[in-house]
Structure formats: C-alpha cells, structure tokens
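Exam revision sheet. Question 4 asks you to relate a sequence to its structure. Input first:
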Amino acid sequence: MPEKTYEFHMEMTCEGCANAAKRVLGKLGEVKSVETNVQTKKVTVTSSLNPDQLLESLKKTGKECSYIGEKAN
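Answer key, structure tokens:
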C-alpha cells in the first residue's frame, strides 16, 4: 500500500499525551512520520498502513480517538 497521510482526533491534554501517541505509532515500523498538536487535539500520521490499524494503535494510549480522514497532499 502506498504511503498516505491521515488525520486523527485524540483527546490530548499535554505533551505527555502527545508523546504516548508517538510512542505507540512508532512501534508499528511502517510509520514514516507522526505530528501531534495538543491545542487542536490532532495527530497526523504518514504511513503505508491503513487508517484502521493506526487508529487501533492510538487507542492503546487509553485516550479517546477517532479517524478524521485522509489529508490531501
């Protein structure tokens, strides 16, 4: 699957939450980049994995997460 960029909503209140998202996604191996924004509560991920796999990993943080959609490049 080609690399695509996806956006997710995640209930983040601090940089610790953002780092948790980066940590769980980093374990997947097929993730090129992860950008977090605590203010907008968005996680932007560039990966060859499908969004369902990425969302399942984000849920391992224990935070409420949802898939927003594919980001146009």
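Marking note for examiners. The first strand starts at residue 4 and ends at 10.
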